[in-house]
Amino acid sequence: MRIDSLRLVNFRNYAQQEVCFSDGVNLVCGENAQGKTNLLEAVFLLTGSRSWRAARKSELVSFGQQQAMVSADVFSRSREFALRLGFSCGGRSSAQVNGVRLKSPGLLSETLRCVLFSPEDLQLLRGAPEKRRRFLDTALCQLRPRYAQCLAQYQKVLEGKTSILRKSAERPDMLALLPEFDERLVTLGACLMEYRARFCALLAPVCSDIYSDIASGREHLTVRYQTVSSVSDPGADRKTLERELSEHLASHRQAEMRLLQCLSGVHKDDLVLEIDGRACRAFASQGQTRSAALALKFAERELFFRDSGEYPVLLLDDVLSELDARRQAYVVGHMPGGQAIITCCEDTGRFSGCRCIAVAGGRIL
């Protein structure tokens, strides 16, 4: 899987630009705030995923413009594809593959998959559960478009329930709608839980092996999916998950009505990582945290490969400068086998035979 060329129109600080990539390693070099990360963001959007930097699509459109477009020529599944993604300041977006419009941009992941590693990910283990949950969601949305649809529906229903609870102080009659919303949350939540549990079961041993490699076998990393307390086994069948999740929501209903907020559900799931039995979030050193973050990202990359037989495009956003020599060596040594696009302030000389792309002021030099 590789991106041969990328075209941008009114995207971030790029008015109109085209850039070609080679197979293997591509280094995007330039000063800060020139547009290096914007290139990676554009590539990542073509997987159908949300931007990790922008809260709204309007932030992706150049100042003074109403619409933006990102397109690319991609080689995937032994075929050539033309991908196109357009979006407006109003929030609307449209996606095409080979000129055929898709029902949802999330379906772009059937053609292009990427694993993104940014400096923020180096604190993936120390941050709030939301960060690790986003890691799960981003991977699964690319692997299974059905998951992306289910997640979007769940979030919409959750927003509806939250709105009811907040307005119930003035409109108590609205509380009669809660059972209907909870029933929908149970059905969708069990679906999400099933996907997450399966993914984590595959991720855990791969992540553990990679961490052991980075740590030279001196430490052992375990990964565990954590969901609502009433679910005894996240890997159980769908009916069991729905029953236990329903019981959990019912037990929290009175408290939610009293506090006017959603207190529990799969939207609070977490990924628990431990090194030698001690929680990484509380006890891991900075070096251990970075090694575990590397293990998570490279395990994600390996699972993508096992699923499709092709390595996803690896996007590294100024990560190497944040790693010590040993961890840099691991990243460099495990990059062969797929395409990588790496941003950096200058060519470090670590990569031989790579393509160097210079960026300045939203232009490819």
Please sum up the structure shown.
This protein is of the alpha/beta class.
Largest sheet, in brief, is:
6 strands, antiparallel
Give the strand tally. Answer: 15
Mean of residue pLDDT? 92
- Note the total helix count: 8
CATH architecture of the domain at 1-113 and 314-365: 3-Layer(aba) Sandwich
CATH topology of the domain at 1-113 and 314-365: Rossmann fold
SSE order: EEEHEEEEEHHHEHEEHHEHEEE
- Strand adjacency order, main sheet: 2-1-4-5-6-7
Features:
globular; 8 helices; alpha/beta; 365 residues; 6-stranded antiparallel beta sheet
Structure, described:
The protein has a domain at 1-113 and 314-365: P-loop containing nucleotide triphosphate hydrolases (Rossmann fold), CATH 3.40.50. The strands form three sheets. The chain has a six-stranded antiparallel beta sheet, covered by helices on one side. Strands 8-12-13-3-14-15 form a six-stranded mixed beta sheet, sandwiched between helices. The mean pLDDT is 92. It is α/β, with parallel strands linked by helices and 365 residues long. It is globular, with a radius of gyration of 22 Å. The two termini are 26 Å apart. It contains eight helices and 15 strands. A hairpin with a 2-residue loop joins strand 14 and strand 15 (363-364).
